[in-house]
Design a protein that fits this description.
Layout lengths: L1 H7 L6 H7 L5 H17 L7 H18 L8 H34 L4 H8 L3 H8 L7 H11 L13 H15 L6 H8 L24 H4 L8
Helix pairs in contact: 3-4, 3-5, 6-7, 9-10
Length: 229
């Protein structure tokens, strides 16, 4: 169980798993599903096979919001804080996934390949590959290694490494503990604080144009805080 938890700390969003469960359980998954819904709203115009998936996602959103947000008087400060943190985390994930998708599609186009060709290369069905590219299913590590080898896309642009705030807090505690015996371990704190993924956000009108990464103001970038906020 502990091993599975560790593996999931840096795992990719898995919208298909949420759909199969038939229920949204967390604010983070709610934000992930909301972004997936907005993305599929655009994609279903050219990929009609995605419409049933979007319909199922919409039903889950309605059920979750009726269950958790219908009564304002019952919404707690802790719930609002969780919602705000989840929104930031989900947006950073989505920026990464969207940019990765663009990189893969650009490589396919450069080689005059189509999505069905990628499906053959990865040994998946066309529909499964469509869900991978649209962020419904997570790529496996093997998929990403093959894409790296075939298209020479850096692994740093393929493998998502966005830790949750809980994970960052755990790491901060662990680094502090290790540093008592080894002062050099404090450098790990600086490495995490300066991780490049901390600057990814959705821009205004992201669903009309390509996404661009914003950068945080310099005064915030200079602070070595292990935070996603």
């Amino acid at each position: 169980m502990a091993q599975n938890k560790k593996l999931s700390e840096l795992g990719e969003p898995n919208i298909r798993k949420i759909l199969d469960a038939g229920r949204i359980e967390t604010e983070l998954d709610h934000e992930r599903v909301l972004l997936a819904d907005r993305h599929l709203m655009l994609q279903e115009e050219v990929q009609a096979n995605l419409r049933p998936t979007r319909k199922a996602i919409g039903d889950l959103i309605v059920e979750f919001e009726a269950r958790c947000w219908a009564h304002e008087s019952l919404v707690t400060d802790a719930q609002m804080e969780e919602h705000e943190a989840a929104e930031i985390h989900a947006e950073r994930e989505y920026v990464f996934i969207w940019n990765r998708r663009k990189l893969i599609l650009e490589k396919l186009q450069a080689l005059s390949l189509k999505q069905k060709d990628l499906a053959i290369l990865l040994n998946h069905s066309k529909s499964y590959t469509s869900e991978l590219l649209n962020g419904i299913r997570p790529f496996s590590t093997n998929d990403l290694k093959l894409i790296h080898l075939l298209f020479e896309i850096p692994l740093a642009d393929l493998i998502i490494t966005i830790p949750s705030q809980d994970t960052l807090s755990r790491l901060e505690t662990a680094i502090a503990k290790i540093s008592t015996a080894n002062p050099k371990a404090k450098l790990l704190h600086e490495t995490l604080a300066n991780r490049p993924v901390a600057n990814g956000f959705l821009t205004e009108g992201w669903d009309d144009d390509d996404l661009e990464e914003d950068t945080e103001p310099k005064e915030h970038a200079d602070k070595l805080a292990l935070s996603n906020k």
